Amino acid sequence: MVCESWKAKLDTYLDGQLPEEEMRAFDAHVRSCPSCAADALSRVQMKRAIQVSGKRFAPRAEFRRRIQQKVAAKPQRSFRLLWVLATAAVAILVAGALTSSYVGSRSSRDHVFSEIADLHVATLASSSPLDVVSTDRHTVKPWFQGKIPFAFDLPELQNSGFTLLGGRMTYLDQTPGAHLIYELRKHRISVFVFPEGALPGLGSAANKELSFSMETWSQGGVRYFVIGDANAGDIDSLARLFKGGG
Fold first, then answer.
1. Strand 213-219 and strand 222-228: pairing?
2. Which of 72, 121, 166, 227 has its Cα between 20 and 30 A from that of 211?
3. Residue 227 in 3-state DSSP?
4. Average pLDDT of the segment spanning 13-42
5. Distance between CA 179 and CA 190 in Å, rounded?
């Protein structure tokens, strides 16, 4: 079949591991091929289900304490040696706490970025990516009223090169948000909007570790993500339009 060569690389594509030119070619193919689009959507949904299942069970603090008690060293008779060991243990605990805090924060941030990328890919692969189809921001923005527990503004696009295609409801870790889709020179760019309180500690930055260009920031109590296969300059241009207000 014609699509067999594409489907053989589908998992690599969804993981963002293909070279940039192949990623762009794959994006174009998925948008024009219903079979590959459906397959991509199915695999993204399976990936997200596995991620959720993998976090369902975690050891409790009481279990950890019991294990620590079993493997703890016997008390030393020498007070001096005990003092040295206690001092070393405190130093290790402090260093471990700092490292754990940093790793935990980074892991949480990477998880959010990965989920945003999955939502972007899944939407583009969907046969019906939009709930409200309109190039008019005054039609798209009111559509979200009553569907999400916050408000946001859409920018004026005149002479910007960007075209609003429409929007849809979306969810990130069970938090409802808005997903807007823009087009620039045949590139589809997603703008996600969520309440800031549900996604704390992300800061304002451009992410360079994904296969897509992405920028995120907080403004007016909401968190914005702009992501797509357009170059970083185009992503930044759309982000600046949002930062400038409606």
1. antiparallel
2. 166
3. strand
4. 75
5. 7
